[in-house]
Amino acid sequence: MNGAPFHIVTEGRALLKMEGKGTVELLAGDLLVLPGGAAHTLVSESHAERVPFYDLLRANGIDPDWASDRSDRRFDRWRAGGDGSRTRMVNGVFGFPSPRPNHVIAALPDVILIRGRLRSDESRARCAAAGSRER
Questions:
Q1: 36-89 confidence digits (pLDDT tens)
Q2: Does residue 113 contact residue 132 with C-beta atoms inside 8 Å?
Q3: Cβ distance 85 to 12 under 8 Å?
């Protein structure tokens, strides 16, 4: 199944890192969608160790074959990290079951970022530098 990962920060903050695109800070209320499924990393601090997604799933007792078309898949809660500040997120994937190319999805930017509250000009400039669209 093809899909577009999404992340909603409900508490705390996270940093989105994408190769060649820089770093964007996500705060509570922000919605991030990656329509093309671009590779990305979410960390709590810029110096934090990156843990591969499949390793996080396994550590929480979740089968890493999460992308199968099984409709009974549920990830109620899972944990990652250490002693830093708490961040809570809702994560998922908008699934596209058809293997055919989706021209609407292909026309979207790599990163769609919808802010939960008004941001400063500096924050908007960082989003633009990272190639995202802030709404």
A1: 888 898 888 888 888 887 787 778 777 766 555 555 555 566 677 777 788 889
A2: yes
A3: yes
CB 131 within 8 A of CB 111: yes
Task: Give just the sign of the alpha carbon dihedral 40, 30, 47, 125.
Answer: positive
pTM surpassing 0.70? yes
Q: How are beta strands 22-27 and 13-18 bridged, if at all? A: antiparallel
Please tell me what DSSP assigns to residue 21. Answer: T
Q: How many CA atoms lie within 13 A of 113 on its CB side?
A: 25
In order of 31, 53, 59, the CA distances from 79 in angstroms are 20, 12, 9
